[in-house]
């Protein structure tokens, strides 16, 4: 399904959704498939691969699968099972000083 408008799903859907705006999965909504959108709000259940600028999993929302997003928000009691990738994030620094080798010789214990 290709859309240029918002979509609200409060029933069952299986397949691929591509929306240039917002996809909202209502409390009774169940999606099995991939979603590509600007903003995704999950109040129901979705299983699949999600690609969005912003993903919000609300209090009773549940996501099973993978999420690729710039922003990922999970409210208390929201459930996410799977893998996530933050778009545009720089890699975490591995240069944390945790060994004695990073301490000057006269300061070693």
Task: Please tag this protein with its features.
about 110 residues, mainly beta, eight-stranded parallel beta sheet, 8 strands, about 0% helix
Can you give me a brief rundown of this structure?
The chain is mostly beta strands and 109 residues long.
Report what the structure shows:
Strands 1, 2, 3, 4, 5, 6, 7 and 8 form an eight-stranded parallel β-sheet that branches. It is built from no helices and eight strands. 0% of the residues lie in helices and 59% in strands. It is globular and about 40 Å long. The chain has one domain (2-88). It has strands at 2-3, 7-9, 12-19, 22-25, 30-42, 45-57, 62-74, 79-86. With 109 residues, it is mainly β. The mean pLDDT is 88.
């Amino acid at each position: 399904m290709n859309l240029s408008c918002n979509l609200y799903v409060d029933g069952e859907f299986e397949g691929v959704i591509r929306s240039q705006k917002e996809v909202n999965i209502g409390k009774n909504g169940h999606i099995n498939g991939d979603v590509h959108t600007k903003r995704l709000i999950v109040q129901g259940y979705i299983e699949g691969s999600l690609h969005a600028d912003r993903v919000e999993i609300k209090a009773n929302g549940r996501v099973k699968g993978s999420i690729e997003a710039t922003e990922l928000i999970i409210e208390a009691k929201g459930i996410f099972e799977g893998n996530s990738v933050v778009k545009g994030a720089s890699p975490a620094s591995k240069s944390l000083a945790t060994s004695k080798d990073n301490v000057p010789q006269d300061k070693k214990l």
